[in-house]
Amino acid sequence: MSHAELQLNNQICFRLYAATRLITQAYTPMLNALGITYPQYLVLMVLWEQDGQTVNDIAHRLLLETNTVTPLLQRMEKQGIVTRTRGEKDKRQQIVSLTDQGKKLEDIAYELIPAGMGDRLSACPLELADYKHLAGELDAIISTLKH
Amino acid sequence: MSHAELQLNNQICFRLYAATRLITQAYTPMLNALGITYPQYLVLMVLWEQDGQTVNDIAHRLLLETNTVTPLLQRMEKQGIVTRTRGEKDKRQQIVSLTDQGKKLEDIAYELIPAGMGDRLSACPLELADYKHLAGELDAIISTLKH
DNA sequence: CGTTTTTATATCGTTTACGATGCAAAGATA
DNA sequence: TATCTTTGCATCGTAAACGATATAAAAACG
Q: Is 0.85 surpassed by the pTM of this model?
């Protein structure tokens, strides 16, 4: 069996890639009920935590480039979830704010998502301690690799 | 602090999402040297393990839909990395085979990727045991959520 | 103050992902 | 065997990601 290091089964990266897509897919039915996508949900979580952030703030928080976030926000603005207004002090900045609709989604998300994901993962043999381990290991990878 | 369950920092999903993108980005310089993308690299790993698989085989192995894999293979065929030929017994099937160029990439990948990723992750505090834990936890999530 | 550089965002092109749908070949059934 | 269903793949539309590039405003500098 040649080049064992290259084999798919030994790869952390493929597992991350697969697990990420599967978890995102598990979110999808709940997010459909909210009328949003997973990356849009991430933006909303950032804004629910602190409203009125700039494109850069949001991008840094999500470890994304602004050229990913800008079109995402444009779509969310078109859907009436957020507004974008130029900064007063610094006219280059776009201040992103939740609309009433965007604020209401937090309560609906809170109703649907923890319960829905709990259901979806109820058959998963991982304990709370395992999830904490997992979080720690992922954080180690993230802080090593993030710029 | 309202709705703590929704907070970004508590989310495994965001960590997976971020770690996956960062690791994929870490692969990118090496993969650029091979002239391929990360999903194309995944397809090659599947074919290096066993040449001559169908679109369905590859999609199942990568937990992707065929409507993702088909265009990916079309691009790889255009680049001369693989060929696609209709199955003889079953003319619906496309048999995907490595070209000489696709086979050669395995050696180059073996030269570049383990070393390159080792470098990139050398500052990561995780031990081999941690990576094994991580793999196990990801496998648990994957097998719970995969259809 | 005028010029240069940096910063914040936007635009463009390419490649993934994936839901929805189409289509032809194979298999199942009456 | 004729029809119905399933299977394997392809096509289309939309939304991310992200490299490359553009642009206007702000900051730094001479």
A: yes
